[in-house]
Amino acid sequence: METTKTEGAVREAAGNVKETIGSIAGDVGMQLGGKADELRGKAQQVCADATDLARDAMSSNPLAVLAGAIGVGFVLGALWSANRRADM
Question: What residue ranges are annotated as transmembrane (predicted)?
Answer without folding.
Answer: 63-82
